[in-house]
């Protein structure tokens, strides 16, 4: 019986393997952009960070004020680049994990919970939500929103 189904199974595997490999390669390309962003932050390299963003990219943060009210703060990539390149004695180290990558053609959405350290000191944690677009063959961040809280981290 198996000898009748084996050719069909092999054909199916060979048919779908290239698309799975292409999807994985695309996910790896997207991860590389996000990893480059955090490498640039850690190394105070605003040029490396800048290359990750599209022109007109939007950055926002969801945070709690001291009175407990939640707010959405908007910032600019330019302000972020200035902060990255600023002379600060300790390393900004955002430790992320990839929890989900969704891809539809030239659009991708990525969820990365994180813990942020200044030097070896824990500062805050939260999650990043990245929206990326493939522009001229390169993945670029078009929108980044994050949450921030003192913990506990998930």
TrEMBL record:
Signal peptide span:
1-22
Q: Would you say which domain of life the source belongs to?
A: Bacteria
Gene3D superfamilies per the UniProt record, alphabetical: 3.10.450.50
Q: Which UniProt keywords apply?
A: Signal
Q: What is this protein called?
A: 3-methyl-2-oxobutanoate hydroxymethyltransferase
């Amino acid at each position: 019986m198996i000898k009748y189904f084996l050719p069909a199974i092999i054909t199916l595997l060979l048919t779908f393997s290239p698309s799975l490999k292409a999807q994985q390669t695309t996910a790896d390309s997207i991860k590389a952009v996000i990893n480059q962003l955090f490498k640039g932050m850690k190394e105070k390299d605003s040029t490396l960070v800048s290359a990750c963003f599209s022109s007109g990219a939007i950055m926002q943060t969801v945070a709690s004020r001291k009175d407990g009210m939640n707010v959405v703060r908007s910032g600019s990539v330019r302000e972020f680049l200035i902060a990255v390149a600023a002379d600060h004695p300790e390393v900004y180290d955002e430790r992320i994990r990839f929890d989900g990558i969704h891809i539809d053609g030239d659009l991708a959405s990525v969820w990365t919970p994180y813990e942020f350290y200044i030097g070896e000191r824990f500062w805050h944690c939260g999650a990043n939500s990245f929206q990326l677009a493939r522009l001229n063959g390169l993945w670029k961040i078009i929108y980044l929103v994050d949450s921030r809280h003192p913990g506990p981290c998930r």
